[in-house]
Amino acid sequence: MKYLTPGPIQLPDFVLRAIYRQPAFHRSEEFRASLKSVLEKLGKVYTGTPVVMPGTGTLAVDTMVYNYVEPGDKVLAVIYGEFGRRLSLSLRTRGAEVRELTSEEPPPPDVIEDELRKMGGAKAIAVVHNETSMGMAHKELGKVADVAKAYGALLLVDSVSGMPAEPLPPGIDVVATASHKAFMAPPGAAILYVNAEPRAKLGVPPAMDLRPYLKVPSTLDTPYTPPISVIYALEASLEYILGIGLAKYTELHVERMNLLYGGVKLKPVPKPSHRSNTVAAFYCNDVKRALAALREAGYVASAGMGPYKDKVIRVGVMGDVAREDILKVAEVLNNVA
Ligand SMILES: Cc1ncc(COP(=O)(O)O)c(C=O)c1O
User: Fold this and answer.
1) 163 CA distance to ligand 1 middle (Å)
2) Which of 83, 159, 318 to mutate to test the pocket of ligand 1 (most atoms within 8 A of CB)?
3) Which CATH number is 205's domain given?
4) In the chain, which end has fewer C-beta atoms inside a 10 angstrom radius, N or C?
């Protein structure tokens, strides 16, 4: 089976080989060398202090929310799919006063600005960069960052399935992501980029408190047991990603997407201008049959989410995915449709 899923993804052999070893003691020099290498490499992907902690994407998002939002804070949640709804849930669980801006596709910066103006006094804008459930990405986060800055609000971004294959403009205060999607490693590491001092004074559970993690790049001493095997995997995957260069890595995904959208005759969910580089989504009359046909051909893809569970099929192009895989998936889907 080959996994053309929205994550976890099909890992290349060199990443699998990197984890096939005894995890070192995390207070040893040997482990510190791997951690240092991963933090330095992550530092080349985006600005700010990189944080790697045990967990998945949800934990990265909750950690971002709990460290930067306090109960009663006014926050604008931008929602254009299932993960936007989950981001809003995290904010409401934290006790924030959330105003939801909900639409069927990524709202333009001026619509976000309008909403922010109407709210008054917003402490943060929270938005998903790459909405995995819809195969859509917000391509104008640079302008959203300008809006946030102009209104004195933080910009908190969930890029769990975007980074580093979907470009992220500078100026974002906190980015939450994870190891098992475009970073091409197994699940197990929550990753954050911190460009602003954590704000919350109370109510942050110790395992999610970013403050001790911000010291790790200089001390190489993690507050708790880190996801050691995933760090080995990240060392290998980041070596590869940075080796080919971030621009080329992005381009590789765009080419795969063009091939997929060009080949599949089903109706795409996103408009071309909103297409994610990592996950494609198509309307499909018989999702179960399409997924079964793909399995028969040796591929695992995914159903839609939430209201689109039985109406949409999603195909990920991250990881060890060849041109032939994409052409085969397109052929199978076209035969089912
Ligand atoms: C955009 C986005 N946010 C958050 C998550 C949650 O990540 P996880 O399932 O690793 O907890 C996902 C997972 O698919 C995602 O795609």
Assistant:
1) 12
2) 83
3) 3.40.640.10
4) N
How remote is the CA of residue 54 from the centroid of ligand 1, in Å?
Answer: 15
How many domains in the chain?
2
Torsion of CA 93, 199, 47, 61, to 10 degrees: -10
Here the CATH number for the domain that contains residue 296 is: 3.90.1150.10
**Which residues are registered as beta bridge partners of 176?**
158, 192
Please say which residue of 192, 227, 262 terminates a domain: 227
Copy the structure tokens of residue 37: 């290498």
Is residue 16, in this structure, part of any structural domain at all?
Answer: no
Of the candidates 197, 227, 257, which is a domain's last residue? Answer: 227
Residue 278's domain comprises 2-8+244-336
Ligand 1 close to Cβ of residue 57 (< 6 A): yes
pLDDT tens by residue, the chain, 337 residues: 999 999 999 999 999 999 999 999 999 999 999 999 999 999 999 999 999 999 999 999 999 999 999 999 999 999 999 999 999 999 999 999 999 999 999 999 999 999 999 999 999 999 999 999 999 999 999 999 999 999 999 999 999 999 999 999 999 999 999 999 999 999 999 999 999 999 999 999 999 999 999 999 999 999 999 999 999 999 999 999 999 999 999 999 999 999 999 999 999 999 999 999 999 999 999 999 999 999 999 999 999 999 999 999 999 999 999 999 999 999 999 999 7
The pair of three-digit structure tokens given for residue 23, joined into one six-digit string:
């995890």
| The pair of three-digit structure tokens given for residue 69, joined into one six-digit string | 């939002």
Question: Among 151, 141, 74, 132, which Cα is nearest to 107's?
Answer: 141
* In a shared domain, residues 215 and 249: no
**Does residue 45 lie in a domain region?**
yes
